[in-house]
Amino acid sequence: xxxxxxxxxxxxxxxxxxxxxxxxxxxxxxxxANQHLLLDLADRMKAEVALRDSESQLRAMFENALDSxxxxxxxxxxxxxxxxxxxxxGYGIQELLAxxxxxxxxxxxxxxxxxxxxxxxxxxxxxxxxEVRRACGSARLVSFSARANIQPGRHLITLRDLTEQREAxxxxxxxxxxxxxxxxxxxxxxxxxxxxxTGQSLSALAMHxxxxxxxxxxxxxxxxxxxAEAVEICRTCSTDIRTISYLLHPPLLDEVGLLPALAWYVxxxxxxxxxxxxxxxxxxxxxxxxxxxxxxxxxxxxALVNIHKHADSKEAxxxxxxxxxxxxxxxxxxxxxxxxxxxxxGRNGARGLGVGITGMRERVRQLGGTLEIKRANPGTLxxxxxxxxxxxxxxxx
Length: 397
Known about the structure:
Elements (H helix, E strand, L loop, with lengths): L1 H63 L3 E5 L5 E4 L1 H7 L3 H5 L12 H14 L1 E9 L5 E13 L2 E8 L1 H52 L6 H28 L2 H5 L2 H16 L2 E6 L8 H22 L3 E9 L2 E8 L6 H7 L3 H4 L1 H12 L3 E6 L4 E8 L10
Parallel strand pairs: 6-7
Antiparallel strand pairs: 1-2, 1-5, 3-4, 4-5, 7-8, 8-10, 9-10
Helix pairs in contact: 5-6, 5-12, 8-9, 9-12
């Protein structure tokens, strides 16, 4: 009995030690779990603070953006709009939140907007230009950038008002057209003045010199030589004045049209520059409008001058064709080709390509055409394309 009691006591002590060990192990595990939980909770709190800060920053960016920003749902109801959007449309925020996007679009543009929305959802994003309607009923031209599902069922539209910019561009375009017309009129006036006034004065001077030469046998040898030189100078001046007058504005262009004027100019250009020019001109069943004749002539003139100055080419080719209701002009050379850097820089204006080519671009644009200047193999190719404008189009029959 005494032995059994001793064994029982030992067993109880062993069980007590095991229980204490298990309690210590569980307690340590629980302590570590609590520590991890506290760390996770701290990280989560930090993340929530960072998220709130990020949302606050995004909200501040949204509210203070210079561009107008509107958030829409799948039914195109307005969920939010920043201050710029409120100013653009002339509505307060609560008024905008009561509207659908369609209410901001002029009635005549609804079908266009539907196509834009289709592209937004198919491609995820879309850029373009549209007209929008303000609260007062006036229209504004805006560029837009739409992005679908920035969050599920949430779509963002960013708008930038282009109205003043476009009006300024239109004003500059009208000014450019007026300056181009004035330039052409001034060329005509100076050409007429040179021909009618200076040319006539030189002709009168030549007649007087002819009288002097007829009596030159009675003059001393030195005077005879001076008179002969004066006659030669007078003839040279007359030729130069006539050439300058024709280069400013060849009367053939107004009197008989493009082709005779072009033949005259090309012949003189080749003689002066040493550049051989070949022409391939399509038949024109009806005379072209005066504005188109002038544009084609000036583009050819500028292109040939550039070939002579820059291309290091001894030959050039002019082709004029009709294709798909358009007049297509091509001028090419076999020289060293235009520098690609000049082409890239020149797309933004005269700094890259020069005033002459900028003038070419403006003439083409005014007549609804396109101008392409590129490196060829070899040389450079200038291609201008215009809608066909015949003489009767302007009532000049």
